[in-house]
Write a structure and sequence with these properties.
By secondary structure, the protein is an alpha/beta fold. The protein contains twelve helices and nine strands. 40% of the residues lie in helices and 11% in strands.
Length: 342
């Protein structure tokens, strides 16, 4: 940094008679402009994506053909419905949050269940695309037979103020699944994802605290998402607590079968996805499927999942833990679950 300053000074001296004070002023503004450009790139990366064009809707994952419904034995789990069978329905259940909590893993695990048909991509209907209308939304859904559940996930719903009212207008009976994770770890994971797309960002601590030393900056989305109690307050204005299931992102890693059992119970389904479906991948550090949907081969989530986190000073971590502690405790009281983050 000192060398850079010396070079800048020399250039200014050599051009003093030509550029005068204006050249020195432009040189002094350069670091500020660079920082503004970097932060601008971060903001663009963090902004929600656009709604997909109406003519290009995400296609449901291919499914295997199903024998006639009448051929099932009573109580036997159903097989996935063929893409041309059944009809499109509004989702009876939604994974509404949270980002970097484990929602993709949960969705992939649940898609093993023969009576769950899930949209693979995130439609973002209730936060970005609501003006497209409910008929458009339903057209995205995979076809299901009676007794099968339609599911979609969009983690940004949980922090979108309008989403609870909109979902309630679609169906007040919708079941809502929220995957939560230690908010400090979640924030660092969020930052790591953005850093992978926008190298050169300011440090995690510089973004988490105003001016790097001041109070926690709750305007930064990576911090704000972790205020689970505040977001849940908004949802409880429209849905009773009984419509929610809160899944631990930590236990989804340490005991995926146990958490999947709770989800299947919540959805009123037989426990088909069990510990026999999982193995722990030591390289990635989280569970993988012994067999993916429609395949006989093992399957782990993509390389973007389980990416290494940047090193964050312990003092920064401790400050954030102290900040989140009262919010976490309120969230425990609201949900009746202690997630053990404190």
């Amino acid at each position: 940094m000192a060398g850079s300053g010396g070079l800048a000074g020399g250039a200014g001296g050599g051009q003093g008679t030509v550029g005068g004070p204006g050249a020195a002023l432009r040189a002094s503004r350069a670091p500020v402009l660079f920082a503004a450009l970097v932060l601008g790139a971060y903001c663009l990366c963090a902004l929600p994506g656009r709604c997909p064009p109406a003519g290009r809707v995400p296609a449901p994952a291919p499914a295997r053909a199903e024998p006639p419904r009448a051929s099932r034995s009573p109580g036997a789990p159903g097989l996935p419905v063929a893409s041309g069978s059944g009809r499109r329905r509004f989702p009876q259940a939604l994974i509404v949050g949270v980002k970097k909590g484990g929602t993709r893993a949960l969705l992939e695990f649940l898609r093993l269940h023969p009576d769950i048909r899930a949209l693979g991509s995130e439609p973002h209907f209730f936060d970005r695309c609501y003006e497209r209308g409910l008929a458009w939304y339903r057209s995205l859904m995979p076809r299901t037979l009676d007794g099968q559940i339609t599911l979609e996930k969009t983690p940004s719903y949980f922090v979108t103020r309008e989403a609870p009212r909109r979902i309630h207008s679609m169906s007040p009976a919708t079941k809502l699944i929220v995957v939560v994770r230690n908010p400090v770890t979640r924030a660092i994971s969020d930052y790591a994802q953005t850093l992978s797309k926008t190298p050169g960002l300011p440090s995690f601590g510089a973004l988490a605290f105003r001016r790097g030393l001041g109070p926690v900056d709750t305007a930064w989305s990576a911090v704000r998402i972790g205020l689970y109690a505040q977001h849940l307050d908004n949802w409880l204005r429209y849905f009773p607590l009984s419509r929610f299931l809160f899944v631990s992102g930590e236990r989804l890693v340490s005991d995926p079968a146990g958490e999947l059992g709770r989800v299947q119970d919540f959805l009123g389904l037989k426990r088909v996805v069990t510990d026999k479906h999982f193995y722990f991948n030591a390289t990635k550090g989280f569970p993988c499927l012994k067999k993916a949907q429609g395949s006989g081969r093992p399957h782990c989530l993509g390389k973007s999942k389980g990416r290494p986190h940047p090193r964050v000073p312990e003092a920064v971590v401790q400050r954030l833990r102290a900040f989140y502690r009262p919010f976490n405790r309120k969230f425990y009281q609201m949900t009746g679950q202690d997630f053990g983050w404190d």
